[in-house]
Amino acid sequence: MSTKQSAKRSLNGKVLLVCGGAGFIGSNFIHHIFEKYPKVRIINFDKLTYSGNTDNVRDFVKDARYTFVRGDIADQKKVTAVFKKYQPDYVINFAAETHVDRSIHVGSLEFINTNIVGVFNLLEAVKVGGTVQSFVQVSTDEVYGSLALDSEDKFSEHTAFAPNVPYAATKAGGDMLCRAYHNTWGVPVVVTHCSNNYGPRQYPEKLIPFFVLRMLEGKTLPLYGDGNHVRDWVYVLDHCKALELCLLNGKPGTVYNIGADNEMNNREIADRILKYFGKGKDMIEFVAERPGHDRRYAIDASLIMKDFGWKPEYLFDQAFADTVKWYTQNRKWIERVRRKTGVFNPHIDLWEGHKNKK
Ligand code: NAD
Ligand code: DAU
Questions:
Q1: Can 142 be counted among the known catalytic residues?
Q2: Structural domain 3-205+230-263+297-317, CATH architecture
Q3: I need a surface site. Which of 1, 6, 145, 200 has the fewest CB within 10 A?
Q4: pTM (2 decimals)?
Q5: Atom of ligand 2 nearest to the CA of 297
Q6: What DSSP state is assigned to residue 113?
Q7: Rounded Cα distance, 248 and 246, in Å
Q8: pLDDT tens, 108-159?
Q9: Which tens digits make up the pLDDT trace of 223-237?
Q10: Annotated catalytic residue: which of 141, 175, 244, 263?
Q11: Does the beta carbon of 48 lie inside 6 Å of ligand 1?
């Protein structure tokens, strides 16, 4: 790590409130922070929705530095009580409804409650409580909409919001509230927009773990539409390190884009997974297009690189292979998730239902 990349402040001796810390990125963040700051106190406030998983943070259950509070960020009373009781110095929000297909096929109300009302409650609590030095709202590049496949454009912090699916629209709503709370009341909030993450402990509705599970079950890999949609893949620990810098060094009111300059289309991801499992392309199946499907994401991360010296450290080939291996070696984790939540992907469920009726 370059000296410029180091955090200006320390979390040792501080109280950090992590909302949504039982999910994919939040739990990886908690692991990273405990390793780096052995004297931090972490309060993990999580509703434990279908994607929240206490197995993801089981290493800390008996740790005196760690407290788990089950609760909903959309519940204002509960949020206020947590702020009052723990008086956090730092807050980071991973709590969200995150799956695009669910926002289309299952419904958008939960997305509005968590991603907009929940963020509003956190901003209010930070504003009223007055103890918080920095609040990071973890958002997504999906708020910017879609880029053309044949362009070299990238999303910068100045790209206008143009969300195409309900999930992205609700994330944009939360981000706009952050902007307004900073400009109106000086709430010390930093908003981040990252592209697609991969790594261990991701709920298997998302592309990479979903495809690995399909391979483990001897099933085909379903590509939506023509499979040429591009995502800019970031290893989850690179994202977590960027978030740590935003939390400790970020100037209130700033927005940072985070990406690894690692564009790849879904066919290439499928090919890599097939190669890992020694399977041929006959295991690919093209299925119905996702409504509102964004064509391409690409991130211009030059601002966070310039301001904090952050850069991605993990090389895709190795980190991708390690990620696939993690799912193959953690079958118990998969089986417990499966028993708890059942169906992983409503888009594929619908499609398989139609196919079986024919
Ligand atoms: P996830 O679905 O794995 O985890 C979400 C967590 O939030 C779960 O533990 C869940 O129980 C909790 N939660 C949901 N609603 C809640 C509520 N109302 N109150 C309290 N807790 C609640 O999601 P993730 O992939 O870890 O994403 C975390 C954040 O990062 C999200 O804001 C998402 O928009 C953003 N993001 C994700 C990616 C990605 O590729 N996964 C990329 C960029 C940004
Ligand atoms: O860009 C960041 C976003 O990345 C996050 O904000 C979201 O929370 C996260 O879900 C992710 O959104 P995507 O829609 O890009 O991720 P998903 O894993 O659902 O799909 C990735 C691509 O793969 C997308 O083009 C759809 C396609 N896909 C996905 C699945 C699950 C398939 O072709 N087949 C599939 O079975």
A1: yes
A2: 3-Layer(aba) Sandwich (3.40)
A3: 1
A4: 0.97
A5: 1
A6: I
A7: 6
A8: 999 999 999 999 999 999 999 989 999 999 999 999 999 999 999 999 999 9
A9: 999 999 999 999 999
A10: 141
A11: yes
